[in-house]
Here is the input.
Amino acid sequence: MHIGFLGLGNMGGPMALNLIKAGHQLTVFDLSQSATAQLVEAGAQTVASPAALAQSEVEIIISMLPAAAHVKSVYLGADGLLANLKAGVRLIDSSTIDPLSAREVAAAAAKNGNPMLDAPVSGGTGGAAAGTLTFMVGGSQTDFEQAHEILSVMGKNIVHCGASGNGQVAKVANNMLLGISMIGVAEAMTLGVSLGMDAKVLAGIINTSSGRCWSSDTYNPFPGVLDTAPAARGYSGGFGTDLMLKDLGLASEAAKQVGQPVILGALAQQLYQSFSAQGNGGLDFSAIINLYRKDT
Amino acid sequence: MHIGFLGLGNMGGPMALNLIKAGHQLTVFDLSQSATAQLVEAGAQTVASPAALAQSEVEIIISMLPAAAHVKSVYLGADGLLANLKAGVRLIDSSTIDPLSAREVAAAAAKNGNPMLDAPVSGGTGGAAAGTLTFMVGGSQTDFEQAHEILSVMGKNIVHCGASGNGQVAKVANNMLLGISMIGVAEAMTLGVSLGMDAKVLAGIINTSSGRCWSSDTYNPFPGVLDTAPAARGYSGGFGTDLMLKDLGLASEAAKQVGQPVILGALAQQLYQSFSAQGNGGLDFSAIINLYRKDT
Amino acid sequence: MHIGFLGLGNMGGPMALNLIKAGHQLTVFDLSQSATAQLVEAGAQTVASPAALAQSEVEIIISMLPAAAHVKSVYLGADGLLANLKAGVRLIDSSTIDPLSAREVAAAAAKNGNPMLDAPVSGGTGGAAAGTLTFMVGGSQTDFEQAHEILSVMGKNIVHCGASGNGQVAKVANNMLLGISMIGVAEAMTLGVSLGMDAKVLAGIINTSSGRCWSSDTYNPFPGVLDTAPAARGYSGGFGTDLMLKDLGLASEAAKQVGQPVILGALAQQLYQSFSAQGNGGLDFSAIINLYRKDT
Amino acid sequence: MHIGFLGLGNMGGPMALNLIKAGHQLTVFDLSQSATAQLVEAGAQTVASPAALAQSEVEIIISMLPAAAHVKSVYLGADGLLANLKAGVRLIDSSTIDPLSAREVAAAAAKNGNPMLDAPVSGGTGGAAAGTLTFMVGGSQTDFEQAHEILSVMGKNIVHCGASGNGQVAKVANNMLLGISMIGVAEAMTLGVSLGMDAKVLAGIINTSSGRCWSSDTYNPFPGVLDTAPAARGYSGGFGTDLMLKDLGLASEAAKQVGQPVILGALAQQLYQSFSAQGNGGLDFSAIINLYRKDT
Here is the structure.
């Protein structure tokens, strides 16, 4: 299939590459020449603007952009995709943005005759390279089914979350809970250790009790508990504090828009913000435990 | 074996009963006559005071009391157990109290020649009746092994958490995390639903993602998600809000004693306190989601 | 002077009226016909659009709009003020919006040859009617001095806060502190009363001690302490919970934009959000004490 | 008058000295020999135990002890004051402890025929030396009036807060509010400065607006705003972080005992705890602003 791809950053680049490897014809756009160069080398064509991409013969366009402002500008701008796109071309936005913006863009696309899905991902750059991302997809059942094959090239878990915007809802809700749970585990582990327990023993008990959670059993932030977690390698790699901060910002913003309190969510956001302001934004988010450790 | 049992409340009563059913000889004490009557009917002897219990021929004494003040008074008081107990009698305190008090009492017991374990439980009144409690045990390896058989009569999971007091540490650390996670799930679920998602679909996504936790996959607070959770029966039964509040109070108190911050833990305590002050202390703690639901 | 006025709501209406009463010639615009009708009756002319206002002979334009999106649209839109305004016409935006948006609009105005001040107010609808508002003004010293006379018609305190955007900064910083202090007073008062103190005695002590603050000595939220506070009239009138919520939202949004933690500020926002979600958004913000009172 | 004084630390020492200077006869007790030596040099007699103090000819006993455990032990212990005191001797406890403990001890004293006041102070070591402390006094009107003259020797503000325990209530309520306000000011000031305002200008606006409070106008934590505040001398002297932490601990403990939520109070406690755990417990509590400053 002839696919257009917009936004070739750390995530978008490897995703586009997997589409080429699977035999698809790609036309790509990115502001960075070096980003496109790599894809061209792999066989992609390149265009000079979103408008040019829209005017090319692509059947579907996938975008992976940093924030809602970029998504709105690329899709809704005077020189953007919708203004230049013929009806029927399908759209998938894999950017992580707030649900209301996602719905606004999808509604404009629908009006233009372009079925659109929001399909934010989780799984990190590792999952993007390996083609094992999770896609949380919002949009109609039909559009979801049509997109399934292509998304499966880039991901392993393709989950339909309901109508337009719900892919974003699922992502911000899950990641807000993740951000809270990680701090909860950080507090429980440091409290236990401060009171004299062995970290590994405590994690073992929690992981078979009612405190059990992914942040404890798969990604425990206390060094020495899990060999495979970022805590075992100085909190490098993984899911950066500033990315968690971005998602918590989306969660509290979306909550504000619908008048929904998110008390622990907002506090968690502030704690990651404090940690980031101390210069730790590039560390894996589980490093938040360093706010609590007295021995470091 | 001849066992002394002190404190025959909602938990202690059924626990003592299971010991009788297993063929042990029981001598019991409780301030409430009706509580002892039931045990006497089942074959237990009764005594008039902790001192009398200490002076009887029991080989081991198990206590299940409401708070540290009771434990200290019963064990350390002028007319208490230690003042009247001969060396060698073994002690197990299954009360949930702060770790430092547990260590203080255990140290006094050791000085008196009485090996002591702290062994708080989880599993609720249901688990107490069914003999399926989890015991989190602090004390020496030898003492733990000696107590294992008797604890197994009352529980299914008997976990050694390390030295004296660590049973309490494990319990408060786990339950603090549980209290935080439950509010985190409540916020994530209500945020998602306020933004237009179906609760069951959202829970399904969370339960296979990084937000996965016991509070979501086993005890989800949103009505309609799980048939077996308290949310399905109006938040009756289960683990009461005021019990969670007590455990969070122990956690923040223990944290204060060792100068350890527990930021989300303290906020969670205040939120359960708010919910309890509104008259909801008797509801299962997952009812905390009602602080967040706009549709109720 | 010939003044243009945009946005004739609860605040803007009375402000514009005071300008007419002071002898100025007014040309006004508002989407609501009934809002303009009142001003026309008082002697104002009316125009059909922001563009028409810009093309009229006004020497200065004052705007009072609900949110940053409106301000950006009215000033920066294709049919907006700047696109239709000749250089030299001075601009004053009295809307309360985030500082970065205020600076963005002011920079565009400067580029267009139109000196612009941000001048958000405090003092409520009462102050707007009485002409006793406080204006917190951001912009150059010269522009501030030129605007002083006109602002003095509508307000009593005209404070220069520094360069462009700083009027907004001063307002969100002050109001965030106000939102926090009010909850602090609510907690201190209810704690004291729950512990057995008389509310008036407690307030008297606080007001001569280190807890002294405007929320306690001038606007005490506990009923019976001050005859003049909203607490004495069922929390009607005053500064609405939803207005406080809006300002706290601006504060946390601005904080996010500059990576500044505001931990209590964000928590205060969530507490007012909870209170508003329970249907209390129209009550004076000091009614937040009802989240804490067990006797009501 | 012949006065007994118990507890000659940083506060009690200078207070006792002022009583001697005013011509009173003092009999003192402290575990530290060097503490008593200084008073003996000034003319005091010394005794070897609280019991001996009780058995001496004192007409009134004043105590100034670190925590409730000491107060209970000194007053209620088997060898304590009450067990050795004849009826009629009056008692004043100036320790800062939780209100319920204060009431428990006062009730026991009353039963023993000894009228007792709780009279915690504020004003720091400076005020203790200068005799300018504030006394917040709980107890009967008669007892308060009788004690007024002696308290006036040590303090300038002698405030009757109502019945027994209310001196402690007033102190914890005021200081909890103070702890919250200070963090509120820290957040407002750092937010404003991060957004580009001058700290002194911002403080000036806040101090004439609704954010006005003692923490801003008298004790502003931002360096350069006030020459007289601890911020001007590296946060040395003043009211230590660990003392604020103790008072917030008393507030949240008392709140727990009466089931009263104190949400910001508990969060403030955790933030001072975090700051103290980083090694800053000895700095003035206004140094908490360093948790927020990105430029330091």
Summary: The radius of gyration of chain D is 20 Å. Residues 166-194 of chain D form the longest helix (29 residues).
